[in-house]
Amino acid sequence: MIRNDWTIEEIQDIYNTPLLDLIYRAAGVHRQYNETGEVQVCTLLSIKTGGCPEDCAYCPQAARYNTGVGVQALMKKEEVLEYAAKAKAAGSTRFCMGAAWREVRDNKDFDRVLDMVRGVNEMGMEVCCTLGMLNEDQAKKLADAGLHAYNHNLDTSSEYYGEIISTRTYNDRLTTLDNVRKAGVTVCCGGIIGLGETHSDRIKMLHTLSTMAQHPESVPINALVRIAGTPLANNPKVDTWDMVRMIATARILMPRTMVRLSAGRAEMSQAEQALCFMAGANSIFAGEKLLTTPNPSFEEDNMMFELLGLKPREAFKEEKELAGIQ
Ligand code: SAM
Ligand code: DTB
Ligand code: SF4
User: Fold this and answer.
1) Is residue 306 over pLDDT 80?
2) Ligand 3 pocket residue status of 104, Cβ below 6 Å
């Protein structure tokens, strides 16, 4: 049964279960609801990089921090489609385009992004975008262009949010997520651990996600990638056990959701990643770069898939099953 009425206390109890019991329970839920061993492979591309006016304390692309990330204008559609074709050839079934924008504006750049969405969709990949805040009309336009998912992270608890970002509010985030839902686009929404938050903040974020009227179809769990020049540059490295705990708890709370082992894999061994898959992670970002930071190569990941007996999930699987197509 999928529940949307989890209480903070229940989530706290799950999160605080002794680790091996927690993994065992999460692995059981995963087996019950999903095809285990199947992992969605997504490729990210930064289509507009750097120069962002926001002050997200973790972000290499915020203009106000000296991180060495240069500003690059919006890419050309043809160039983006070339990347998408390469990602598809390498085995990705989802292609996510990211822009260092505070919000979408109704201008030529947005029209170009809509064209990119149409192009990637026509290639038979699930298209995802992460472009900052959206209004209802913009969400609708993206949906009409064939957008499959929109990524917009809550990042942390509503209580801790203000410590990390001051240029927008938690409610702004929730409003955009509502607009995405209303437009019929699937929701990709998760967070980051390692921002200096407490366990209670993590539990609260999971509570917000798992009590949404409809769970996000995908929940990325990112480990902070520490970026020199940002206020969080000297935070301690995220402990893999914390990643495993977050993933396992998310899996138990949201059984059908794709839980993505997102940023942080470059610093994890195969054994550590295997534990995350065991705990219910069933999606990754593949390809040498996330948006601006390193990620394992396709070759390394192919080797890991072979070693662990994992296989990539096909595109639009859920939709095909619903339509009765094998
Ligand atoms: N500008 C848009 C926005 O903020 O919604 C879209 C792009 S933004 C880079 C997408 C997400 O990347 C952020 O919400 C955050 O969760 C994640 N992210 C950014 N920098 C990160 C870092 N250093 N470590 C881990 N995750 C990070
Ligand atoms: C998400 O949750 N993680 C991705 C994607 N959604 C857009 C981004 C991670 C970014 C890590 C830092 C960088 O590469 O710039
Ligand atoms: Fe800008 Fe997004 Fe980075 Fe925040 S996370 S600074 S909004 S690119």
Assistant:
1) yes
2) no
